[in-house]
Amino acid sequence: MKKNLLAFMLSALFATSSAQAVEVLAIGSLNGFAHDLSSQTAGALENGVAGNLLGGLGSGFAWAGGNTFIATPDRGPNATAFNPLVDDTASYINRYQTLKMNLVANQSGSNFAFSLTPSLSKTTLLSSSTALTYGSGAMGTGSVNGTTYSLGNGAPALNAINNTYYFTGRSDNFNPALGSSNSNNARFDPEGVRVSNDGKSVFISDEYGPYIYQFDRATGRRIQAFELPANLAVSKLSSQGATEISTNASGRVANKGMEGLALTPDGKTLVGIMQAPLAQDSNKSLRIVTIDIATKVTHEYAYKLTTGSGVSEITALNDHQFLVDERDGKGLGDGSTAVAKQIFKIDLSNAQDVSNMKGDLSSKAVSKTLFIDLVAKLGEKGISASQVPAKIEGMAFGQDVMVNGVNTHTLYIANDNDFLPSLAGDNKFYVFGVTDADLAKVGATYTAQALPAVPEPETYAMMGLGMLMLGAMARRRK
Question: How much is the pLDDT for 457?
């Protein structure tokens, strides 16, 4: 009996010691002073910044299969002061970047188990086949602190050249007679992004509406808009965020709309999360919204902030468990020291629908468990809190790898450098290794998204052409 007990204890000890804790596998970067591949947008914006500056890549981040990822910059470079009537936003054309993440195992003894080399393979501009509403410039004339400002039309010049309607980050591109959920507004502030299971389209959430749009992945043309619950929208619009906040008693707070977006592994349900509480809610209670892609039916659940000042991302573990990125605004880019950059596991399986509720929703909030403290984990690799990016916003699982003989899930986390590389550094990508044992410690499991083996949508067309050519050749041989 004693021998059996000793054997059991030794077995348990070995199992515990061999189980890996979540660790940083690799760190990579893309030059924040570089430009993307959209040469047509290379000209200077209203604020003098190049319209194709390669920045803000971590606002949204999604796996597209293999080593391919999609990154969505937000509404563009608006940190350069030029016109307070539009909160310094410019006619930056919204887009997403297709990236290759080359992850290669290092020799033993290296500080990191892998090396990560990101590269940019494509830039896709986002557009609509139907007309959008742009600011006329008339509403953008006035005086601020004794200085008079004026604006031109908010439509990008590229509209006329390419005979299309591009979405832009400029805050006055809306119809003032309609609410913020009007899908004909040209203003768009992309945040979360996910790739459909067939690999042919992308879903992108936004802060202005909030909206969730589906775009054709090859062309960037909008396919459809999902109608979100009316209580998320505001009825009185303004090109100035502070004015919009002060004039609305309900709806999303300006610049803090649907910050994160997840897609369940089966590709059937979108799960969006707001960055901050709605105007009608209190006690740090913000909302999670699920959308059935086929039926468009929505549900709302509550999430209680505990450490950070807001939420930046959500990604799926399975059909009911998710990881949520909760953070403060401190760190590199803010000139301060990062404190709260934490990833929590949540579970919606027994959550209460709060669609018809408002106020203090904290008692209805989903359960949450701390999974990764990013500041602590990066500190283990010698990265000081002052060098941890202030805006850790993108999060996505990628391909599994083997680490010391253990199958390990890769969790990619990216920063939004606000198009300010001189202050916030380059576009950074952190790869964390997550094992099933790590997930079991917080009562979670992981199911990978069922993405196609061929990640690039253009390849489908090439394959189709190739099949036709092969068929023609076969017929000739006959």
Answer: 62
Provide the whole-model pTM. 0.91
How many Cα atoms are found within 13 Å in the side-chain-facing hemisphere of 191? 29
pLDDT at position 454 over 60: no
Instruction: Find tokens 């002052």 and name the residue.
Output: 386
Query: Omega of the bond prior to 210 within 30 degrees of 0, cis?
Result: yes
184 with 165: CB under 8 angstroms? no
Distance CA(31)–CA(217), nearest Å, equals: 25
What integer pLDDT is reported at residue 471 of this predicted model? Answer: 52
Output the 3-class SS for the chain.
CHHHHHHHHHHHHHHHHHCCCCEEEEEEEECCCCECCCHHHCCECCCCCECCECCCHHHEEEECCCCEEEEECCCCCCCCCCCHHHCCCCCCECEEEEEEEEEEECCCCCCCCEEEEEEEEEEEECEECCCCECCCCCCCCEEECCEEECCCCCCCCHHHHHCCEECECCCCCCCCCCCCCCCCECECCEEEEEECCCCCEEEEEECCCCCEEEEECCCCEEEEEECCCHHHCCCCCCCCHHHHHHCCCCCCECCECEEEEEECCCCCEEEEEECCCCCCEECCEEEEEEEECCCCCEEEEEEECCCCCEEEEEEECCCCEEEEEEECCCCECCCCCCCCEEEEEEECCCCCCCCCCCEECHHHECCEEEEEEHHHHHHCCCCCHHHCECCEEEEEECCCEEECCEEEEEEEEEECCCCCHHHHCCEEEEEEEECHHHHHCCCCCCCCCCCCCCCCHHHHHHHHHHHHHHHHHHHHHC
**Confidence class for position 451, pLDDT limits 50, 70, 90:** very high
Listed by start position, the domains of the chain span 21-477
Does position 250 have pLDDT exceeding 70, yes or no? yes
Residue type, 20: Q
Residue carrying structure tokens 């993307």:
36
Name the nearest CA neighbour of 124 among 44, 38, 194.
38
Residue 119 has pLDDT above 70, yes or no: yes
Name the pLDDT band for 10 (thresholds 50, 70, 90). Answer: very low
- Predicted confidence at residue 79, as pLDDT, reads 86
Predicted confidence band of residue 142 (pLDDT cuts 50, 70, 90): low
pLDDT score of 11: 36
pLDDT tens for residues 192-202? 999 999 999 99
Average pLDDT of the chain is 91
| Nearest of 351, 357, 296 to residue 322 by alpha carbon | 351
User: Is the pLDDT confidence value at 460 over 80?
Assistant: no
Relative to beta strand 281-282, strand 359-360 is: parallel
> Across-strand partners of 53?
35
